[in-house]
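Deviation from plan, reported transparently: 2-acetamido-2-deoxy-beta-D-glucopyranose complex.
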Amino acid sequence: MALLILISVVFSVNFCSFVSAYDLDPLQDLCVAVQDSNQSAVFVNGRFCKDAKLANADDFYASGFNVSGMPTPTNLGFSVNALNVNRMPGLNTLGISMARADLEPFGLISPHIHPRATELILVLEGTIYVGFVVPDTRNPFKSRLFDKILHPGDAFVIPQSMVHIQYNLGTTNATHLSSFNSQNPGVHMISYQLFGSNPPILDDVLVKGFQLDKKVVDHLRAQFSSKS
Ligand SMILES: *[C@@H]1O[C@H](CO)[C@@H](O)[C@H](O)[C@H]1NC(C)=O
Ligand SMILES: *[C@@H]1O[C@H](CO)[C@@H](O)[C@H](O)[C@H]1NC(C)=O
Ligand SMILES: *[C@@H]1O[C@H](CO)[C@@H](O)[C@H](O)[C@H]1NC(C)=O
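Because the crystal trials were delayed, the predicted structure below was used instead.
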């Protein structure tokens, strides 16, 4: 019985910390991220602040979002130009960031999640199909899809941590802006994570987990590995 209580306490603590995972409010006016290559040797929850006296307007400025980002090394046909704390050190501790996404005709941002942020999408150009899936609260083996076709000026919100996609339905390029309530929303591309991990996930786990033939697992591994 004591063990059962301990297990349920551990589970609920973990669950609560997962659902409340968002950027904390800043504890000072300015906390411009230090641009020191050595900081990679120390890990904190966010970036170190540089001395506020040394902060300047450039720390709060970024440019280059009038063009698309570097194309991804995949054949999915999309590129993302992310405006996060890595591009603008002044975003550190502010709990906000943006991205510009460009999709070629029939380009797809394949199923992914942003573990630390809700994403608010605003279409500037083209026709974009968006959607996210949510598990049934009573039955995790059931899932609901919320989807929409967006035109310029339309907006759609993806709740934090939900699996979602953006797909260009049109024969012209499409562009959308996204805002995130995190300085560093993160991205987990599901097919790459599961079929392209290093070291690879055990064959039998993927075969059983996705109810696939081993040959299909080999095929998917070949598609999603080493295309970082
Ligand atoms: C970074 O590390 C190198 C080598 O350890 C050191 O020489 C340099 O002074 C460090 N820079 C800062 C800003 O601490
Ligand atoms: C984008 O903006 C930069 C200035 O930040 C400018 O130099 C460049 O010419 C612009 N490019 C396009 C395609 O408008
Ligand atoms: C569409 O985007 C691609 C890059 O993704 C670019 O090379 C091409 O010129 C764009 N086409 C139009 C009509 O803007």
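Confidence is low (pLDDT under 50) at residues 9-19. We consider this an acceptable substitute for the interim report.
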